[in-house]
Design goal:
The protein has twelve helices and 14 strands. It is of the alpha/beta class.
Length: about 400
């Protein structure tokens, strides 16, 4: 762990009551662990550190002392992650681990924080208010115009779930930014963008907050929605954000020559529209795919298995089983075409049953791996649109 000495020295200095959080990301093995967060808490008057580890769709918590927390962070960075971000009330440090194991640490101090009245201690309560990537109380023009925020930055009560959804989605994007940040313009396509809450959020976060060179195209069938979104983009001066009216199946690219997309987003595209979007993303070699499927009717009409009749004879259960089969087929086909795939929970179950997000990141070597998806679909007498499109 000699290469971690510089990070160890930083941790010794920055772990304390003024720590806001430690975030370890850019996982080397997403099947093992996706992301880990650490924050300080008080337990019976004693300072401790709460670790939150995201493994697949599960979340694990643990509380540790300073020395044990440091050791765990160093082990995570030695084995599991390539990026560690440490933020305190007085400054920020980012540690990056190269493929050869060398560690680079960059630091930035906040000398004016205390002068501006910032609290000298982080909130150490168990149930402190969550800090979102887009903060409450900080006005964001597109959130105000879309009715999520008021002029003072407070959240419209009826839109709080939408606010949380936007931030949750940005967290998924924040995790994969190292995959996209290659020093070149990043081309993003949002299929079925609708009112474009999330399209504007992507642009604002990646362009305005992270300073990345991006170009986003939003596509939707509704002409009036596209017109409104283009007017808003022009109003905010978002020169690299545009919206087009059109169909996913017939769309040919970004309009700047050969089709190109580094990231493809498709949220709640109905039924097989999701399959057309995924197929295009694969054929373009998109580095990142983010998809929240909706209204999966295709498999529900086909699925048939005598052995599964105790499940399929109930309409509601059949509908849900068909939706899960559909997304399982999609995830496996993406793996076969060279992607590392995660199935993640997008928003809480009480808000909508359509809460599955497929996040796929293209492997460096582009090689896929065989899955048993064909055996499963043959067993269930199913053939999906995505299977047909990827076979062409």
């Amino acid at each position: 762990m000699g290469d971690m000495q510089q990070l160890k020295e930083v941790l010794e200095e920055m772990l304390g009551e003024k720590l806001y959080q430690v975030i370890m990301s850019n996982s080397r093995d997403r099947e093992r662990v996706i992301k880990v967060k650490v924050r300080p808490i008080m337990i019976k008057g004693v300072l401790a550190y709460q670790e939150t580890a995201y493994r697949g769709t599960q979340v694990f918590h643990g509380n540790y002392g300073k020395e044990e927390t440091m050791q765990r962070i160093l082990e995570y960075m030695s084995q599991d992650f390539r990026q560690c971000e440490i933020e305190t009330m007085e400054g920020r440090a980012i540690a990056l681990v190269s493929k050869k194991g060398s560690v680079t640490v960059k630091r930035k101090n906040y000398p004016d924080r205390m002068k501006e009245g910032e609290s000298s201690r982080a909130d150490l309560s168990h149930n402190r208010v969550k800090k979102y990537l887009l903060e409450e109380g900080q006005p964001v023009p597109f959130l105000i115009d879309l009715g999520v925020q008021k002029e003072d930055g407070s959240i419209v009560k009826a839109k709080y779930d939408k606010f949380k959804q936007i931030n949750r989605f940005l967290e998924f994007i924040d995790d994969i930014l190292p995959t996209l940040s290659k020093g070149e313009k990043i081309h993003i396509i949002d299929f079925g963008c609708g009112k474009s809450y999330l399209t504007f959020a992507i642009y604002y976060y990646m362009k305005e907050r992270k300073g990345l060179d991006i170009e986003i195209t939003g596509l939707d069938l509704k002409t009036e929605v596209i017109g409104k979104c283009n007017r808003l983009a022009e109003k905010y001066g978002y020169k690299e954000l545009r919206f087009l009216q059109g169909d996913i199946g017939s769309y040919g690219g970004t309009g700047t020559g050969q089709p190109k997309a580094d990231m493809v987003v498709t949220l709640h595209a109905c039924d097989t529209a999701t399959d057309y979007a995924l197929a295009k993303a694969v054929k373009w070699g998109a580095r990142v795919i983010l998809s929240v499927p909706c209204c999966q009717h295709e498999v529900n009409k086909q699925i048939d298995s005598e052995k599964l009749n105790p499940l399929l004879k109930y309409g509601l259960l059949k509908e849900r089983a068909a939706a899960l089969v559909t997304d399982a087929v999609r995830a496996n086909l993406l793996e076969e075409n060279g992607y590392d795939v995660q199935i993640l929970e997008f928003i809480d179950m009480e808000h909508t049953p359509k809460n599955i997000l497929i996040r796929a990141v293209r492997r460096g070597n582009g090689m896929g791996k065989e899955t048993a998806v064909r055996e499963m679909t043959e067993l269930l007498h199913v053939q999906t649109t995505l299977q047909k499109l990827l076979e062409k």
